Amino acid sequence: MSVFSSITDTELLQIIQTLRSVSTYDFSEYSDKSLKRRFVKIMMDSRITLNELLRQLKTQPKYAEEIAKRVTVNTTEMFRDPPAWLALRGEVLPKLAQKPVIRIWHAGCSSGQEVYSMIILLNELGLLNKTELYATDLNTDVINVAKQGTYKYRFNICYLDNFDKVIRSDLNNPLIVRDVPYDKYFEIDNQADKLKIHDEFLKKPIYAKLDLVKDHNVFEVKFDMIMCRNVIIYFNYALQNKIFQLFYDNMQDNSYFMLGIHESILGPFATKFEKKGYYYIKR
After folding, report:
1. Helix 9-22 with 61-71: angle, nearest 10 deg
2. Last-in-domain residue among 23, 44, 71
């Protein structure tokens, strides 16, 4: 096939089966449409054909790991979708504040901007010290980035507007701006194009590699809130429900669950969660 052509269903199945035979990765329940786009991009970027891709997967053990990392989508940003974070600030976290310990899991944490957004919000609400934060991803490279907490400043500069909307706004009076300086949480070096989270906050999350397709809850605690935003959109219906089962089984009663704003719970688990605006509550 041409490097620049699309992938057929049969060819996609070949790639998935080959990956599964040479590694621990199973993409068989991911969205076909999404996978086809990712594999076409991989072949275009590497300027290789399907046969060359399959050959390298079979002959180079480390190549499968590289391909798996390139297939997973790692787009994230600070305080993505501010209205959702305002709902956390004004509705969810004040209710969790009554608990002696708050346990939060960021599933599919990517490079960590969402984790540090949560840390900032918890700290502003005076809840950080009593919160345990857990974060997982399939891709160990992005976990390492998250642990370092160092990002491109110019890439993230537009997301500082999100910070302003979520952290500096007054929930009762939009005309009031709260004085929360950026340097309370991160160092900005414009010349070096660097935004670095302060070390005291880097120590808070517990990170682990976890494949939502096949792994269990490696932390062996039940959570008061699970954040899994803009992840399940890449899975098919069956896999989505399998992951909803994983989350449901590892949540406290009346705990909270948040998806991306374009994601929703469909099928059997729709009756096990009550939707409240931007978030769900476990029934």
Report:
1. 130
2. 71
